Amino acid sequence: MKIAYHPIYTHPLPADHRFPMVKYELIPEQLLREGVIQAEHLFEPAPAAEEVICLTHSKSYWQQLRDQTLPAREQRKIGFPQSPALTLREIVITQGTIDIALHALEHGIGLNIAGGTHHAFADRGEGFCLLNDFAVAANYLLEQKKIKQALIIDLDVHQGNGSAAIFANNPNVYTFSMHGAHNYPFHKEVSDWDIPLQDGMDTSAYLGLLAGALPKLINQVKPDLVFYLSGVDILETDKFGKLKVTPDGCRQRDELVFECLYKHQIPCAVAMGGGYSPQVRDVVNAHCQTFKAAADIFGH
């Protein structure tokens, strides 16, 4: 199991943005302490190359990120003030997703402690997302002929609107999103398959929908690789999620996905996505369950 880790993740952020980001420091610490992983499973990626980024993102948008010339209005949409360190963080995360996807193709599973920046469009960022790491990785693997067909399974509580828009006319990447019907983004894009969830949905209903969808996805799409966004903002404790999924239900969700992919011998690249419970331990514990499920099902 290979895990992309980004020790620079929180440092460039203003103080008022750091609390939800501290999980990226705490997750590897907990996994190491509990013996789920060893230090050799962790690696720090290099920054993604400009030509790789521009397979997905417009050159003009990338140049604004690179040269720190994003208009104030665009910065407000993203939610972070621009800085060189923030751009560096994003391109390191993006390369991490490429690296774990390549690892998954050979060894079955790879995980990114960050990533899942699914609100970034080809020409703009939104919702704390500057670059769309899944989209960049998928387009890179397709361009390199490493895969012919990718599937994005997006189980963050927020719709992957950027991913849906980027791949709207690309039959080689199938986008699937289960998300809150009345949650951000309030203007939804059209994925290949969207399952909108009503506020207050409980664990049983959530898992039932997912269990019914997974075999259909595999049989229809027949992917060479799955990108799995395992956001834990579906938790009943989440400040913004509006669902009633228990921590055990969140763990069962991950197991459903991993067991289905393992059964069909489909490699999987995983990114953590969102999680905004008031108690950071709830977020960290839920994310760590994703790593434990991956290790149990796919092995180290």
UniProtKB/TrEMBL annotation:
List keywords of the entry alphabetically: Hydrolase
Q: Does the keyword Acyltransferase apply?
A: no
For this chain's UniProt record, which GO biological process terms are given? epigenetic regulation of gene expression
- Keyword Phosphoprotein in annotation: no
User: Which molecular function GO terms apply here?
Assistant: histone deacetylase activity; hydrolase activity
Looking up InterPro entries in the UniProt record yields: HDAC_classIV, HDACs, His_deacetylse_dom, His_deacetylse_dom_sf, Ureohydrolase_dom_sf
Q: Which residues form the Histone deacetylase domain?
A: 17-287
For this chain, the family text in UniProt reads:
Belongs to the histone deacetylase family.
Name of the protein in its database record: Histone deacetylase
Cite the source lineage: Bacteria, Pseudomonadati, Bacteroidota, Chitinophagia, Chitinophagales
